[in-house]
């Protein structure tokens, strides 16, 4: 791979964005690429936004992804997808978990959660892939594996070999959760490449 690839993984605290970023970074290392990752936690422990920047390629000098620069944005929650979609390149790929997690302003009644997020995203000049990752993960045995379902969906969008992704999961997921996560990954990978 001779080009720089830029990604954002966005979600809220507790959704496993950091593990997903570590898997993704390991995939790049296994491909012999330079990789840089930067985690921004915010109020992650209270359900706040979590954003992880990842870049990989022959030479990476900074992990930070600017607006209009991302090849991929993987959103672990719908509202986060809407917030970060502007970071995609034209015709970039947005992978969206259809789950809605209400932020505190919505819970307290001072804001309203948008009901038309997927329709709004569908009007943008991007490649959009959506799924109910939590449901797919539940079928595999645990909703918390939704993050790895999303990695399976992302893997399908890339030209990185499936075996590389599976090896990275083996190396980054604790052994007691490995079978579940491998199943979750393959469930995501089995979905159509793009809608």
Descriptive tags:
8 helices; 195 residues; single chain; 38% helix; Pyruvate-ferredoxin Oxidoreductase, domain 3
Short description:
The protein is an alpha/beta fold and 195 residues long. The protein is built from eight helices and six strands.
Plain-language structure description:
Helix content is 38%, strand content 23%. The protein contains 8 helices and 6 strands; from the N terminus they run E-H-E-E-E-H-E-H-H-E-H-H-H-H.
What's the layout of helices and strands?
Elements: E1 5-12, H1 17-30, E2 34-40, E3 49-57, E4 70-75, H2 78-84, E5 88-97, H3 104-107, H4 117-122, E6 127-131, H5 133-140, H6 146-157, H7 162-172, H8 178-189
Parallel strand pairs: 1-4, 4-5, 5-6
Antiparallel strand pairs: 1-3, 2-3
Taken from the alpha-carbon principal axes, the silhouette is globular
For this structure, what is the CATH class? Answer: Alpha Beta
CATH architecture designation: 3-Layer(aba) Sandwich
Name the CATH superfamily classification. Pyruvate-ferredoxin oxidoreductase, PFOR, domain III
Structural class: alpha/beta
Uncertain regions spanning at least 5 consecutive residues: none
Strand order of the largest sheet: 2-3-1-4-5-6
How many structural domains? 1
Q: Care to count the β-strands?
A: 6
Instruction: Report the C-alpha radius of gyration, rounded.
Output: 16 Å
Question: What would the average pLDDT be, to the nearest integer?
Answer: 90
Largest β sheet strand count, sense and barrel closure: 6 strands, mixed
Tell me roughly what share of residues is in helical segments. 25-40%
From the N-terminal CA to the C-terminal CA, the straight-line distance is: 25 Å
The H-and-E topology, N to C, reads as EHEEEHEHHEHHHH
